[in-house]
Specification:
heterodimer; A: 297 residues; mainly alpha; MetI-like fold; B: 307 residues; 13 helices; 72% helix; 0% strand; MetI-like_sf (chain B); sugar transport (chain B); ABC_transporter_permease (chain B); MetI-like (chain B)
Amino acid sequence: MTTISGPAQMAAQTPSRVPRDWSAVIKFVAVLILALVIVSPLFLLVVASLKADRFQILADMGSFRAFWVSDPTLQNFREVWTFSGALPFGRYLLNSLVILFVTVLGGVFLNSMAAFVLAWGRLPGRAIILTALIGLYIVPQESIVLPLLTLVNRVGLSDSFAAQILPFMASPLYIFLIYQFFIQVPRDIYDAATVDGAGPFRIYWSVFLPISLPVLATVAILLGIETWNQYLWPLMVTQTDRARPISVGIASFFGHDSVYWNSAMAASVMMMIPVLIFYLAFQKWFVSSFISSAVKG
Amino acid sequence: MSIREVPAAIGRRRRALWDGRVQEIAMLLPALALIAVFLLLPFLSSFRIALTNERLIPRPVPPRFVGLGNFQQILTDHDFWRALWNVARFTLMVLPVQCGFALAIALLLNQKLPFRNFFRGLFFLPAITSMVVVCVIWATLFQYPTGPFNQIVGFLSFGLVQPIDWLGDPNWSMPAIVLLSAWQAYGFQMIVYLAGLQGIPESLYEAAELDGAGRWQRFWHVTMPSLRQTHVFVLIITTIQAFKLFTQVNILTQGGPRGTTDTLVHYMFTAGFVDQRLGLASAVAILLFFIVLVVSLVQRFVVRDRK
């Protein structure tokens, strides 16, 4: 039996093994090509931003030279940065960074504090507040921006940093995400801290915050991307360069008769760099935070 | 503990409890106050504004109550129905393209593959690219008549197909917006599908293989049914996102050419911000809210039905 089935199995396996190895190679090459095609627009952007001027960019666009730059120069970036181009891009970039850092730091702090009280506090009415927050989560930003604009105008916050930070720091979604993490913390941990006589803030600060880094990172990443990409709201609320973010700045290139491709591309690369740095450093967390934003249901 | 110490101890405990309450309120209040002022208040006041003829920059005459006049005006406005139709058209086109592509890539990445994490990171790159940057890139790709897209079309058709003015031709403007939107956003659906695929137990595939199911049968009879919840979630989220379409349209086409890419949010933006007709725009905002609400309720319903 064994002497027969051994070679028979071999014979059955051998023909299928060779194509299987080949199919792995083919699959790998297919994925590689697909990935290159998908990423090629981004590659094209970086290459174009290094070209001499917009005439060069436009001239190269119709051929494979679009993906190649023979004499790379940082001239476009210099123009964008030193305001000698059409618009003060350095200013827009700094504005965006200020808005980003304040919103994310404040947002993580305020949302997690509120989530802690909702999860472990003793105040009456926590369940009602939580239900109301979940209900509010569904309201799309797009459908409140106009009343929000009148409100902001009325209190004299228009064209300010505050108008772009305060409305988005606290958010039902992020409170709920952190809440879901907090309620899974074992009761013993909370009890041990109360026995020591610590008040709610002490428990939150020195017991709960240190163990909730994953969910805080998730909220920071989601809120960060959301803030960085804001467009409709800053488009309406900023009238001058004072607090205008880079997204609106880049978009304003399109209004002109001939788009300043070189400046638009250099500015776009500059807008991507901070995100890319964070993405490369925390890639795993980026992906997992997008997933956890998905399973909030 | 002696009898005399008991009241003091109770007092201490009460004090601690009271302090705790005060601290809790102080911790909860900042977030709640911000949400109340910047989310709840504007949301509620949009219902009030929608019933008036309020302007963005107040006129000397106080706003007047107009009842459902704004809704009546919208619902009889041809441009509004066109915007609604455009959003529906966009949704119907972007759903299969974006979700189908996301599922395909997720299936590829779910297999044994060298450098799998590297590829996943690469495929996710467009998702972290800001829509404004995406517009800069795709405006160059769509350049008329010599942009890369037209070159590829000309090359593949041996020059038979004339260059297309992607963003300027009423027939092509919406498909062009669909394409760049799907490219930017599919990464999210891709990782949701990847998570869903990884949740399918290996034993199901082994059982199917024992039953003699081929690769294709395993896909249709094991993978697809197991992904049911994921499908529902992905379709709902993509639909809600699609109904909010604005940024790329505002930057690239301003709703044109000939209104073929005018969307609900763009219509609202034009009415409220450009034309300053706040009441009218608020009515649109409320309709948008109810559309999103209904779509989310459908999701809740379908998911609960399953459980």
